[in-house]
Amino acid sequence: MRHRVIVLGAGYAGASAAGHLARHLHPDDVEITVVNAVPDFVERMRLHQLAAGREQRTLALADMFASTGIELRVARVTAVDAGRRTVTVTSDDSDTATAELEYDTLIYALGSAAADHGVPGVAEHALDVASRPGALRVRERLTELDGRGSVLVVGGNLTAIEAVTEIAEAWPDLRVTLATTGEAGGWFGEKARRHMLRAFDRLGITLHENTTVDGVTATGAVAGTVALTADAVVWAAGFAVHPLASASGLTVEDDGRITVDRMMRSVSHPEVYAIGDSAYAIGDNGRPLPMSCASAGFTRMQATSAVIGDLTGRKVSTSALAYLGNCVSLGRRDALFQAVDGEAVSKEWSLRGRVAASFKEFVLRGAAWNQGHPTYGLPSRRHHLPAGRGQATEAVPA
User: Fold this and answer.
1) Nearest to 342 by CA among 325, 366, 319
2) How many domains does the chain have?
3) What is the CB neighbour count within 10 angstroms for residue 215?
């Protein structure tokens, strides 16, 4: 019986993890299954563009994984039982609506969603750009407004900054406002922050800093005694992971992320690896890696190296777990890249303007190409598992 590897999620981390394993593990010994809720790869780093009205191409996962030996299962993950080594999935296929899958190695890459932080009214009245359906709802609402009325974006992080500038540029007749608890881009260096504020001025964005939104209503938001009237509220105040992991028996942090060691193995269940936003991983600077596409890449590289080494007995290489900087677009032709030091503190140096926009576009195109070619042409020779190593095991009875 072949060793069963299941990858949960086909985002930036999950899709590339599956492709990397397919390139390096022999299909006679290992079967790889990817479970994803939708049939397409979503370019999450472009969702603010989709929300503002730009077209976004879709990459069908079935095409991405064609001829790789990877089995794709389009279904929602509804439960993980780490003790029994099982995953429960639900799909719209009436013949197999709910199924229980057994694994020997699990790669947990389910990512994150918008965090409402318990603020009343967010779920009922706010929109978000943390998912493709969310971005499409924003797009639909902006189209309905057709340049008339106002939009409030809540948040001061990279996603909020990209969303508010993209919307303001695409819909110049809208009144666009950003409200944030602290300072927008307050962690940037002085030059980078000044550049961002100039972009806000150029695009006519009203900025409310040190403004904590306490609730969202059908007509806007409330911050203390101040009413922020808006025809649409876009909530971009951070990310949260699905509570699935905390209910699985895996050891998790207070925020629900899976606690992992340096190899991205779960500290409680070493046959489970967590990558991307789902993982609570300590970087080389001793700080937790932030939820970001960059972290997805580094944690994926480390986890797949560890899986291959654990199964084949080959030496496990150590990948860098670093965070090099913040790259944020400010509309179509403007951006900034803020470099950070080893302590994740912004340096004086930053890349700004059209050059930074070209760099950001290069990163986006490169990430999309990598996802569209997850196996880069399978090698003619892949590693076999030594006899007795990594053999499939029976699931533990409940």
Assistant:
1) 325
2) 2
3) 13
Average pLDDT score over residue span 49-78: 93
> Which amino acid appears at position 166 of this protein?
E
Which CATH number goes with the domain that contains 303?
Answer: 3.50.50.60
Asked if residue 193 is part of any domain, the answer here is: yes
Q: Report helix, strand and coil shares of the chain as percent, to nearest 5.
A: 30, 25, 45
Has residue 370 been placed in a domain? no
Within this chain, do residues 226 and 139 fall inside the same structural domain, yes or no?
yes
What DSSP character marks residue 266? Answer: B
Domain boundary among 204, 235, 266: 235
pLDDT of residue 241: 95
**DSSP three-state, residue 252:** strand
- Amino acid identity of residue 311, one-letter, is L
Concatenate the DSSP letters of all residues of 339-367 into one string: EE-TTSPEEEEEEETHHHHHHHHHHHHHH
Gap between the Cα atoms of 114 and 94, Å rounded: 30
User: What's the domain range around 106?
Assistant: 3-112+241-323
CA distance 338 to 190: 10
- How many Å apart are CA 306 and CA 77, to the nearest integer? 24
- Same-domain check for residues 308 and 294: yes
Element (DSSP H or E) covering residue 209: none
- Nearest Cα to Cα of residue 305 among 273, 277, 281: 273
Q: pLDDT band for position 368 (50/70/90)? A: confident
**How many angstroms separate the CA atoms of 264 and 279, rounded?**
8
State the angle between helix axes of 354-372 and 12-24 in degrees (0 to 180), rounded to the nearest 10: 50
CA distance 233 to 105: 41
Average pLDDT in the chain:
92
In which order are the strands placed within the sheet that holds 30-36?
Answer: 71-74, 30-36, 3-8, 105-108, 272-274
Give the Cα separation of 356 and 359 in Å (integer). Answer: 5
Residue tagged 């101040």 (tokens): 226
Domain closes at, from 194, 220, 235: 235
Question: Average pLDDT, stretch 224-238?
Answer: 96
**At 34, is the secondary structure helix, strand, or coil?**
strand
Same domain assignment for residues 249 and 230: no
